[in-house]
Specification:
This protein is mainly alpha-helical and 144 residues long. It is 68% helix and 0% strand.
Amino acid sequence: MLTMQARTRQELADALQRRNVPEEAASAVLDRMTEVGLINDAEFADAWVDSRQQRRQMSKTGLRRELRRKGVDKELVEEAVGRVSGEDERAAARALAQKKLRSCRGLEAHVQRRRIAGALARRGFSGDVVGSILRELTFEVEGG
């Protein structure tokens, strides 16, 4: 699993459990992998936040949710997500909104707004950020 992409200790533990590896053996293997640096949840969390926040335009809330689902310790999650500034988060929201706006050009302005607001909300952006970004956008309707 590690040859494809980095994984958290919990993801690997779950995979070993699915393969019916005895718990003692799995724990010993995971401890050794951690010891030699093949598993590092702190580095994983930092890389995940950088990647998802920039490429997928995720909010801090969305990043927290994903990392917790992957089994990353709460303290490590907060440390990694804490590196995202408010302006970084707004820039991600702005980029997502502009991308979504391009895909719904020609629709009525209220439909564009609703779709963009929905996309931002699904990525975990707060109502304040969503409202602010919607006020920044220029909605153009074809033929009108």
